[in-house]
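FW: tagging you since you asked about this chain on Friday. Here's the raw sequence from the shared folder, copied in full. Didn't touch anything.
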Amino acid sequence: MAGPTDTGAGFSETLAGNSLAATPPLSASLLGATQLGAARTVSPDARIAVEALRRVGRFAVLREVGRGAMGVVYAGYDEELDRRVAIKLVALGDRSDPSLGRTHLLREAQALARLTHPNVVTVFEAGVHRDQVFVVMEYVEGVDLQRWMSAELRGWREVVATFLQAGEGLHAAHKVGLVHRDFKPSNVLVGEDGRVRVADFGLAAHRDGAGGPPGTSVSGDMYGASASRTRSQELAATIAGAGALVGTPAYMAPEQFRHEAATAASDQYAFSAALFEALYGHLPFAGETLAELIEQVLCGELPATPPDPAVPAWLHALVLRGLARDPAARFPDMAALLAELARDPELERRRRRQRRVQIVAAVALTLLVVIGGAAVYRAVVRGAHERRATARLEALREQLATLQAEGRADEAARAFASFVALEDNRGTAALGRAYREWGEAQTDHAAAIDAFAAAYVHARREDDLRAALRGLALRLAARGDADGAAVALATLDAQAPARPADPELDALRLTAALERRDLAAALATLARRDPADPRRAAVPVLEHLSHATETRIADLPRVQRYTTHKPLLLGDPDGDGRPEVFAPAPGRGPDVVQVLRGDPTLAKIAEVRVPTLVRPDGLAVAPTLQTGPWALPASFGGPPRLLVEAANPGGEPRAQRIYAVLPLTPGAAPEHVWTDSPTTSVVGDLDRDGAPELYLGTGAYSRHLTRLRRDPGGAWLRDSPHPRTDATESDINAVAVGDLDGDGAPELVAAVGAWKAYELRVFRADARGGLELVARKTLGSVASLALVRADGRVQLAAIKRDEYPSAPRFPAGRHFGPQAGLYLLELVGGALEQRAFFPSRPGEEWLIAEAADLDGDARDEVVVTGMSDVVVFPRGPEGLLDPLRIAGGPALLVGDLDGDPAAELVVPIADDRFLVLGAGEAATPALPRSLPTARAVREDLDDPAIAEVWRHAEDLAAIGLVRRAADELVATSGLSRHVREDMLLRAGELYAAAGDHAAAAEQFAAAADRRDLAAKALAGAIRGRRALREFAAAAALAEARAALPGLPSAARAEAEAEAAALRRAAAVRPELPLRFDRPLDPAWRIADPLALTRDPGSRDLTLRTSTERVLAELPLEWDGGSVALTADLTLDHLDWAAGLEIAIGPPDDDAPWLCVALHAGGSSSRPDRRAFVAWGRETESAALNEILPAGFAGRVRLHLRHDVELGVGYAEVDAEGAPRQRANLPDPGLPPMAAPPPGPLRLRLVSRIENPVLVGRVQVHAIDLVGFRPGAPLADAGDDAETARLIVEGELSAALARLDGVTDGPRALWRVDLLARLGRDDEAVALLRELQRGFVEFTLAEIQTNAPDETPQRARFRQLVMHDPDAFLRVARRAVGPALDDVLGASLLFDARQRPAVVRHRLVDLDTRPLEPPATREPHATRRHGLALFMRGATWRDAGRLDLARRDFEAAWRVLDDDTREFPDRDELRRRVGEKLLELALHARDAEAARRWLDVQRRDSKMPEITLEIWRERPGLVELVGADAWAELAGQVDR
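HL: got it, structure written out here
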């Protein structure tokens, strides 16, 4: 890679890559006068900088390659897109407000990023990293133009050809309003592929520096000699100033030295100066100093004749015109200059002579024309053209074969690119064949699709055309684009209807037909298969579902169509043999159940209003139904009944729902009411007494298996039929009843999931009236069960999903357990054996499995409901076949609705319209296609070649390759003036559909040149600029649209209103930067000063979690315009269920408007740390909810923008070491972006914790607000406000003086904390003893949950103890004594990781605790002593002293194993201590101790079978204890 040029001036230092390791820097302006071939050295400081800077955004930093006064350049790698890049960090100089320069630099870089042209270096991304602007650019193999010019003597035609390309890049920039301001040879790159690229547009215009005249700077001394620079090097360095003097003196135009604004004419002058230097070997003007140079440029004269006689006079005259002092005397624009430069009069004269020769040749060919006509002539020419291209293709094939055999893939790609770029190959069949063969050779689907798309456009032979479409179809399908594959197939079929059988395409046709729910096409595809093909067994199923009846169901809750609880439930509660369908009817009321006819009409026949439900505690609840009610079978006796589920407002977590058995008798009261968690249910008669039982499984947070039945007197009884399953404390996700082993007695199957069991359990009735465990199978989280009946057997279908990972249950690398999908199992000899498995696709969500006979053959198929499709597993001769994924789901009901042997499926259409598949005579309608249809080409297009390209481009658009189609239209548009603007308009539409709004806006603007298209084209350009957030440009376009003659008045008013809104959005908004290197603004109101610390040394504000929700707030004022909130943070620590937020919202409303947050959730032992950027509450409307890397602690930038006038915005999360994430708003999946009324608002720092023993800490480096001003001061909070401010600022003595005499309330804890931090421990202890009475006595149950009677004082005390392992904890220990262990041990019982400071303190605090138990047998004293030993053992373990950890754990065990010392939490503490001792025995490879503690774990566990399985997964444990000993332990487990 080539070395750096002036880093302050150009990007080219990192863009020019070269394979020669010894390639020198491109310029000596930074590194000294370096000759060609000289080795480049990197300073130690540079190496340290690279080591410190590992990433910039999502880009990995590889090495530093250039450094200068204006910035640093690195070689980098884009891991996301697998490509090399160049990364430049631009210095901002000594501005008093660096954010101003940063904003300008960022705008320039972002503008360049939107300029797409082959002769301009591509900028991939621009942003801010650690207060510096970074620009990420393409990596170019080659050299800069300066080195290209000096490497060898070059003829003037070669020079002109190269400069023509550079000029095209300048011209492209000028067309979009960009002025380079610093064009020079070192800012132009010549790639190894021959392509020339211009770099570094406009960034020098906004840089400040030191030295030189006011407003200017230079990379070195401007007027005096530099120790490391020659005069010419100084004059070739970049001046960068805030005024008009910007650029490199040697190439600057006269007007720039006159401090006039740099314009496109100035770029033209620099271009001409560089061209002069390339032609003659020296610059047009020279001087020993800058002053001399300026004088020469302003007053000097150039020779009228070429200094080199080899340069033609016309070219010299052209250069002189470009160097004219008066900008008006130069060419009108770069296009005019380039047109003249390309004209070459001498070459034109030669061509005229050639044309005269061609005329003679044409006469000679007259005979051919007479005989065969003009077509023969064209065929002769075309044939010669084709033969040359074919010969080149043959050579390319040989070259590619050699390069690929040698593993030189990059060189092969370059060789192919050179072939397809050769103009002489265009229009030949060889070009289409080359693209086709290249696509067939690609292993990457995206590359293959791109090649096949090009092959389709350029194919001139039918076989290449068909092969390209075939390749597109197969590769699109392999990439998961079923719609595009289907269109490619349809296009292929239309062009080649009679084709030989193609098994690959037939499989694809079936998939494509099902994705469109075109069941007729799917049947036709299956019918073409070999009769012996097992897949033909699916034909009866598809024939049944290919007929449908449309019906309507009013008032059905839409949200529940896509959950795991179906809104339509089929049942026959009255036992008359005619089923009914039951569903909530929220449109009629939250307490209304609608009863529908159980036939294809699904007509409503009744409504049932659920009465007020009275909870067991006597509280009356107005029902709000949550799911469709379950119809209880008539076998329960008595009236028809429903089991209804309603919300339980105010219920504790384990009682989120209220359930009732409701008779369907008018006016009847509920027979039985109880509260519980969300439930799944099934009816069965396991004890075979003729009376059914209802088995219910519940989820978080009750997690138990319940049986509901009627006693002989008719009363309802609820009990737990298997307490050992309840002891697993795991969700019961699904239940099913059936005779699985064919012995005539039914079994119950339960999916027992998170957070401990993760298994299927099979039960049967025991002799004691309960259930006994028959079989278990560990699968992970099973979401749904179904019993499948076929050929006299009953099999169990289970949907396993990858959710709720468990590191203890499943080993590293597969924490979700076995693979997700559908498992088919049989109960054989007391074990569940797997018979089949069908994996789900990545990202595919299977929710509910149901068994149903879909073809009337008395054998069940399996129907799986997904989020948006129905997955049917047909039955073949040997069992279930691979699934048919039928789009248009989910299936809201599966069951028999028309009385025939086959079941029907009910799927949604839209709103209240539904289809009953399998009923009626009408054909099942196919889904409308989501892709655009191919648009017809203009009929008056008279060029058949252009028409063919356009048609093929439209086909590509219909296939879904809209960007590729747009590229082809743009490339072809210049060949036809007749339809140029039409093609550009269509290209703009396609670019917009592809999300490339910059390209779309450019093409729309070009199409607007034609008057009849202007209104439509300008509207498209406005949309593009809006999407790019270029509101000023969009406003100008809207104003131009409003000014169009002939625009209808309504459209004109709309354009004017849009322009006004865009102008408001583009207006400069007030900025309110909040920094913490100076005292907090007095306007801050601080609620908990102990949770905030301002550190002037680090310039940060540290936030800690607190039991106070709002830590501090700042008044703001908002005028209704665009706003933004940016927070630059460092996450230090977050326990599970802890979080810190920065939010803006109304003064009197708890709900935020804008919110950025860091939260931790998931598992307490392995919490997921997440970054939220939210619109409203983060849990309801998170625009971004990003899981940070495991164990993340580092820098995070969170940003949220809302352009209120336009109803748009965006969110960003940029976390150190992770790819940057961005989401545009509005998002259809989120609530509307509602804003509060203009006026006063509050910026709030918010804490959220599940329990006071959980803590978090975040450093806030900066908060940047846009669109807000400081608000009116909040009401005076009295002395508390000033005291709180002093505490946050660290003025502890002054704050303590203001708290003198305070002995109660929250401020008393402030005082305790200050006394402790100032070393006045005796006073702190005395005050805390007064405060602590009544809030330090804890039980383990209170610690593990938020006790209802938790007082704010007690909760705040617990939080302070956990936060401060030094001062506050020191005095708390003296004041509270052993009771403090209840608080300290709580975090360990939450599996919270001990921070190093806590480890250090606990080793000191617990050092004197004796190993022997206390003499007293008082329960609290015993518990605290055991807990203290447990904590000390855990602390020694975290400190690496395993010997001392084992000593303390064994001592704790002796205390806890004494049956004479009872206390409520003894068993839980015993289990945890025994678990730690077993881990230490395994680590020490102590077999005897491992066997002992493993037996203790089995004996003490409430779920011994699962406990042993968890330990069996620990590497080396089975081998350590021995297989025989393990078998003996397992045999002692009683089911």
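FW: Residues 366-405 form the longest helix (40 residues).
HL: agreed, and The chain has 46 helices and 58 strands.
FW: great, closing this out.
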